[in-house]
Amino acid sequence: MGGHLNINHLTFLGQGALWTIGLSVIALIGGGIVGFAIALARISPLKSVRLASAVYVQLIQGTPLLVILFLGYFGLAAIGLKVSSLTAAGASLTLYVAAYLGEIWRGCIQSVPKSQWEAAEGLALSRTQRMMKVILPQAIRIATPPTVGFMVQIIKNTSLASVVGFVELMRSGQIVNNSLFEPFAIYAIIAVVYFAMCYPLSLFSQKLERRMGRGRSNLASA
Amino acid sequence: MSLQLDFPAVLERWPSLLGGAALTLELAFFATVLGALFGTLAAVGRSSQSSLIAGACKVYVESIRNTPLLVQIFLVYFGLASLGLKLSAFTVAVAALTINVGAYTAEIMRAGFEAIPRGQIEAAEGLALSRLQIYWHIILLPAIEKVYPALTSQFVLLMLASSVCSQISAEELTAVANYIQSDTYRAFEAYIIVAVLYIALSLVMRAGFWGLGLVLFPRRRRLGTPL
């Protein structure tokens, strides 16, 4: 308890905010790569692959991110793997994001009209060609708005990395609060910074959704 | 690396694990009931003719949906304390979770309201139903029926998110796991067991909502399909 909020505190919070963005990017890229594999596995022609990926998604979606983070941090340390808080948070978020993005993208791939699959098959394209040249280009268009929307969830969820000691925005707020003890003011600032990161993405996602809706109705009337 | 798992060391704490699971369910129950009411009110408010009410509801929904739950819980916890209100961690947790899930419920319910065909409301007016009757039978109940699966997912997510309340010392399931791991040094086992308990709780909740849906929507039960 001492002093007032000064420029040093704000710089520290700013650094935390940058780490929040960094961790979000790590989670988005890692989760995107694994999630894409999950999405493809969920519609695999092999039943065992479909089942295994479905079980993965169910397990992750039935567990709180906080518990996954603790498992990654304390759990791996307890069985002899010493990981830094950045590694633990990055890996846990990757596994978590992958399950959700995988499900979102599976839905998008499956919402490409069935006739497109059949036409591609009728043109004697192989399964890979069908995926790469016909289905995915259309699925990516459908997937963009919900993916941008999910990025808001990712940014918000990185706040949980604070509990394993990773100094992102939330944790830097807690540290500043420990020296100033003005919790209400500091957490209000933190909330505003999170809002400033998330709200533009929310708006962008809504805009994309509206634009897509228009594109679709044009397609239907054509 | 020596991998020696000792699950019994954690499992022998089953009374506190069960207590934590019960408190998690209790938190989820209160926040679901209060959040559903609160969120529905906010959804109604957003379509209000008064731009003041509509604007206030929009600010509420957007500010909650674009900030992390952890920050919201800390703000409520410390905010109420700085106003001189000394509340238990449980009360604060229920309040914060209610405010949080209310905003998501409001968005889901708004989608439900928008999906009600205008013609149905006009037909009800033509049949001389009162405003209240129209709101209840023609708008609210069919809207809930339409968005029921989305609401179910949201409330299950809320139960999982209540794990964050361990950070303000509400003794729910994750807090119990933290306590056990600091006591026994069996972190991996403790969190695995708690993860399994959470998965079980989310299955129980989904089954509960499915059963509740059968009771609430008899038409759906008879036809076997949503509206």
From TrEMBL, chain B:
Transmembrane segments: 20-44, 190-217
The ABC transmembrane type-1 domain, residue ranges: 21-209
The keyword Membrane belongs to this UniProt entry's keyword annotation: yes
GO terms, molecular function: transmembrane transporter activity
Cellular component GO terms held in the UniProt record: ATP-binding cassette (ABC) transporter complex
Keywords for this protein: Cell membrane, Membrane, Transmembrane, Transmembrane helix, Transport
UniProt superkingdom: Bacteria
Matches recorded under CDD domains: TM_PBP2
Cell location: Cell inner membrane; Cell membrane
Membrane topology: Multi-pass membrane protein
Family to which this protein belongs: Belongs to the binding-protein-dependent transport system permease family. HisMQ subfamily.
The protein, known as: Amino acid ABC transporter permease
Annotated organism of origin: Bradyrhizobium cytisi
Lineage start: Bacteria, Pseudomonadati, Pseudomonadota, Alphaproteobacteria, Hyphomicrobiales
